[in-house]
Each structure stands twice: as structure tokens, then as C-alpha cells.
Amino acid sequence: xxxxxxxxxxxxxxxxxxxxxxxxxxxxxxxxxxxxxxxxxxxxxxxxxxxxxxxxxxxxxxxxxxxxxxxxxxxxxxxxxxxxxxxxxxxxxxxxxxxxxxxxxxxxxxxxxxxxxxxxxxxxxxxxxxxxxxxxxxxxxxxxxxxxxxxxxxxxxxxx
Length: 160
Fold this sequence. Notes:
Blueprint: H1 5-18, H2 38-52, E1 55-61, H3 66-77, H4 79-88, E2 89-95, H5 103-106, E3 117-121, E4 127-132, E5 137-138, E6 141-142, H6 144-153
Parallel strand pairs: 1-2
Antiparallel strand pairs: 1-3, 3-4, 5-6
Helix pairs in contact: 4-6
């Protein structure tokens, strides 16, 4: 029996809304949330990275962090940088706050000098780079050229 066009449309719409395709139903972690299971979020991101041939960026910070908000604003205002990042990376926000420091998960990585902080992992979960985001700033904002150079340096296959 053939499906009516409206049925096909509804299925297509649901797939688009929920970001699912035949290989993946990954839902990105886009907010710092102290109630989330960071270990599971990272494991899910690594599965997505293996499926899609990308690396993973752990964006560690909190909703309390002004520079974390500035980094989010930077990506929101720089579509080409955001698109590049989404093409080559699965980004996971990992909360660090007084409510949940995610010590068990973050103890696997180098000490964090300030927030936000970025860790680049390959699709197997190996640490490729620890990035102090202060190095990506100029004045009171993130520098487009510095952020792009950082992202370009760690794309899959280009790792040092």
C-alpha cells in the first residue's frame, strides 16, 4: 500500500524537527545544565562523531559565566564560523558550576585555568588539544581569525 502524500510529509517533518536521519538521532547539548549526565553526553557525542566523521569539542563552562555567553554570542553572530564548526565538530556543553562541577568527568582532562574552556577530542575520545579561550580573544570579544585558526587546526585529519 502506498503512503498518502500527507503521511510522507509528516514523516519528513518529524525527521527534520528531531534531527534524525537513517544513521543518527543525536540531540546536541546546547546549554550548560548542572542536572545533565556529562559522561553520557560525551559518550553520545563520541558516537555521533564516529558516525559522521567529526571530532568533538567539549565546551566547559556555566550559565553564570559572562565569557561563556560571549562565546555563544560570537557563534550566533558569525554564521560562517558556526557552520564550519558544525561541519567538523560535535559540540557538547559540559557544566561547571557550584551546583555540579562534573569533577569525575573533568578529572580525565588537563586542569582548566578559566571558563569557558575547550577540549578537542577525536572520535575515539582521545584528547587532541586543551584550549584556553582567553587566547582566542581580542579585547572584550572573541577574535574571528583566532577562533577560525583554532577550528581549522583540529579538523579530523588535520590534527598535529
